[in-house]
Each structure stands twice: as structure tokens, then as C-alpha cells.
């Protein structure tokens, strides 16, 4: 996993990479870039790819999924789309990291607000959102999969020491 800020500089959020790597399903072995972006950037991405003119908490951009709303890896992707920035020699990521799954964008302002509302730390909220985004990269869609994503996310969250996640909070709202 490569964690970057909205201009591609390496970022750190308390052990996120190790935590997500240890929790991820076995079929998720590979490279994921997580971009921590400001709310304005997230709003632009959400408007462009999902037609929603607001900042959301997390978006996933699956590698090579043409025709999906979240496809941001093509040559026609906008300059502000999160991109895999990790040349292995520059990021410390081994070429043996596995296949590239895609990018996850997390809105830092939204994440901070949600962390306050949930009564936990920003780092914990980023974990919640990174896990949710990873499951989307694996093909899960809580809006159409009859609860499969919610069940898997709940199981992984419990194993990772997290409370309510994105799907549960949406259902409670």
C-alpha cells in the first residue's frame, strides 16, 4: 500500500498500511494507493465520476475497470484524479507487492468531521474508510450486493478493532 497526500507526497497515518495489510482478505494481496485529499478535490472527483456535487468520505478507483463510474486510470482521466504515484524505487514498495488493484481517495476534512461525530480519532476514521474503499476495489457494492459487503466489512472491522463502519452509519442515518 502506498499512502500519499493530494499532491503525491508520502503521508503517514499511524500504522495504516500494516493494519490494512494484516486485515485484508487474501485475494487483496497487491498494491493499492490511498490518497488523502482535501474536500474540494473530493467534491470534484465525486461530481465527475458519480454525478454528485458534494464531498464524500471515500471513493475507490479500480484499476482497469472501464465503464465504471470510478474508472480513473485511463489517459483521459482528469489531472486531479488520484493516481498511483509509486515507482517502486521512490516509494519503497517492492515490485513483488503484487497486482495493482487501484486507488482510494479519502477526504481529510470529511474524515475529521466523521471522527468527531463518531467519538474516535482521525486515524481510526481513516482505517474505517480505507477498509471500505478496499472492499469496493475488490468488487463489493453495498448498494447492490444484498448485504455481502456489509457482512464482510463488519467481520473485518471487528477483527481490526473498529466500531461501526461506513455501511452501518449509512443505515442508521
Structure notes:
With 173 residues, the protein is an alpha/beta fold. The protein has one domain: Metalloproteases ("zincins"), catalytic domain (Collagenase (Catalytic Domain), 3-Layer(aba) Sandwich). It has 7 helices and 4 strands, in the order βαβαβαβαααα. The protein has helices at residues 16-23, 39-50, 88-91, 108-118, 122-137, 148-159, 166-172, and strands spanning 2-5, 31-37, 58-62, 100-107. A 4-stranded mixed β-sheet has the order 1-2-4-3, with helices on both faces. α1 (16-23) links the parallel β1 and β2. The longest helix is centred in the C-terminal third of the chain and has 16 residues, at 122-137. The radius of gyration is 15 Å and the shape is globular. The protein starts with a strand and ends with a helix. Residues 66-96 have low confidence and may be disordered.
Strand content: 5-15%
Oligomeric status: single chain
CATH-level-4 superfamily name: Metalloproteases ("zincins"), catalytic domain
| Element string (H = helix, E = strand) | EHEHEHEHHHH
- CATH domain fold name: Collagenase (Catalytic Domain)
What is the CA-CA span between the terminal residues?
Answer: 31 Å
Label the structural class: alpha/beta
- What count of domains describes the coordinates? 1
**Shape-level CATH architecture:** 3-Layer(aba) Sandwich
Major sheet attributes: 4 strands, mixed
**E-strand count:** 4
Strand order of the largest sheet: 1-2-4-3
Radius of gyration: 15 Å
Counting H and I runs of at least 4 residues, what is the number of helices? 7
Rounded mean pLDDT is 77
Q: What is the C-level CATH assignment?
A: Alpha Beta
The residue fraction in helices comes out at: 40-55%
Poorly predicted runs of 5 or more residues: 66-96
The best one-word shape is globular
Amino acid at each position: 500500500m502506498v499512502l500519499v497526500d493530494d499532491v503525491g507526497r508520502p503521508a503517514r497515518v499511524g500504522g495504516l498500511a500494516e493494519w490494512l495489510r494484516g486485515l485484508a482478505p487474501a485475494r487483496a494481496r497487491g498494491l493499492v494507493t490511498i490518497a488523502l485529499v482535501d474536500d474540494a478535490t473530493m467534491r470534484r472527483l465525486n461530481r465527475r465520476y458519480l454525478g454528485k456535487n458534494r464531498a464524500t468520505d471515500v471513493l475507490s478507483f479500480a484499476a482497469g475497470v472501464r465503464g465504471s463510474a470510478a474508472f480513473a486510470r485511463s489517459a483521459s482521466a482528469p489531472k486531479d484524479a488520484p493516481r498511483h504515484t509509486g515507482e517502486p524505487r521512490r516509494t519503497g514498495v517492492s515490485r513483488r507487492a503484487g497486482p495493482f488493484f487501484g486507488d482510494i481517495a479519502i477526504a481529510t476534512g470529511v474524515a475529521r468531521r466523521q471522527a468527531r461525530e463518531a467519538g474516535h480519532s482521525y486515524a481510526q476514521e481513516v482505517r474505517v474508510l480505507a477498509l471500505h474503499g478496499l472492499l469496493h476495489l475488490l468488487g463489493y457494492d453495498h448498494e447492490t450486493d444484498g448485504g455481502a459487503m456489509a457482512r464482510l466489512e463488519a467481520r473485518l472491522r471487528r477483527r481490526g478493532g473498529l466500531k461501526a463502519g461506513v455501511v452501518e452509519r449509512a443505515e442508521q442515518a
